[in-house]
Amino acid sequence: MTANALAAGEGQEAAALLERTRETVNPELRRTVESLPGSMRRVAMYHFGWEDEEGRPTDGGAGKAIRPALVLASAQALGGPLAGGPGEPGGSGGSGVSGDPAGRGVVRAAVAVELAHNFTLLHDDVIDKDVRRRGRPTAWTVFGIPDAIITGDAVMALALRLFSEDPHPAAAAASARLAACVIELCAGQQADCAFERRPDVALDECLTMATAKTGALLGCACALGALYAGAGPEEVEAMDAFGREAGLAFQLIDDLIGIWGDPGHTGKPAGADLLARKKSLPVVAALTSGTRAGAELADLYAGPMAGDDVRAAARAVERAGGRDWAQAHAADRMGRAVQELSRAVPDLAAAGGLLALAEFVTRRTR
To answer: Could you tell me if residue 81 is left (phi over 0), alpha (psi between -120 and 50 degrees) or otherwise beta?
Structure first.
């Protein structure tokens, strides 16, 4: 089998896993969101893609479901309960939640992680002044900044409420772990914002920020799956480390997409991160490269950016080696992720779903 054929097969496996996750998780996710009162429910239903700005049903979805898929795949890799989708073993004929109480618990954990992720998205869109997400106007541009922030807060509270109502013995540890993760994630977001105001940012600082901002939640997702599978402390920590390394690889690819992604696929303007003068990983790698192109990029970042400047900045990042460095470092981090995974799951054949997801997030183009 060729490398391209192998990659295509892994991509198909990941796509199928993500689809099964959405079938399993989205019914419970939607029921949870619909429990919000009044205007917060309306904002959240719009943000998740289930309603338009007038409250009319839409055909939209709630995102790729990468993080909840990591919860379910981690639990399965460690011999945890099967949380099947409709019509699948362990499924419940349409509800998407296993009739087994342990299966219901791992689905709640997956929903909680997705809620926490969307709490960050609602806030990030305000902080970054992003006007498009998933191909349509962001919630704050439709409902205003106060409603978007307040709804994000409420969505995070829903995540913790799920654990408080869950009788599973892992629920308390899972709740504490998610709360600690969100604090770390917020610290990463704060650092990211601070970097935009600083002329000089070291690459190690940027890697630490990205690990907190993105890697922490992916690591938490994997750790929660391990907890609900009844894994021991060492296995839980190894799964967390796997998710963190994979999360950093994910962020590196996401940063590349933020510069060179197709707006038709990303739903955001071309070079959106450059236009906002974000200190993303490829940008910082270029700025600290000591090259003439890196100096040109620094000059562009020192002033206001327009369309031609954005294109010039993208070329400067590439000429300074930022693009190649990010691609190579993403591959290196995925190698480290697999090493961490093998600590928890020595027979990697049992972790096929996790490996397929990791391959998917580091090969995606949107």
So the answer is: beta
DSSP states of 260-308: H--HHHHSS-TTHHHHTT---HHHHHHHTS-SHHHHHHHHHHTS---HH
Instruction: Identify whether the C-beta of residue 310 lies closer than 8 Å to the C-beta of residue 258.
Output: no
pLDDT digits (tens, 9 = 90+) for 222-231: 999 999 999 9
Q: What value does the CA radius of gyration of the chain take, rounded to a whole number of Å? A: 20
pTM, whole model, 2 decimals?
A: 0.88
Beta-bridged to residue 51, according to DSSP, are 57
Q: Which whole-number Å values give the CA distances from 316 to 289, 306, 362, in the listed order? A: 11, 15, 23
Question: Which amino acid belongs to residue 357?
Answer: L
pLDDT in tens, 139-193: 999 999 999 999 999 999 999 999 999 999 999 999 999 999 999 999 999 999 9
The label of the residue with tokens 């890799």 reads 77
Distance between CA atoms of 91 and 82, rounded to whole angstroms?
8
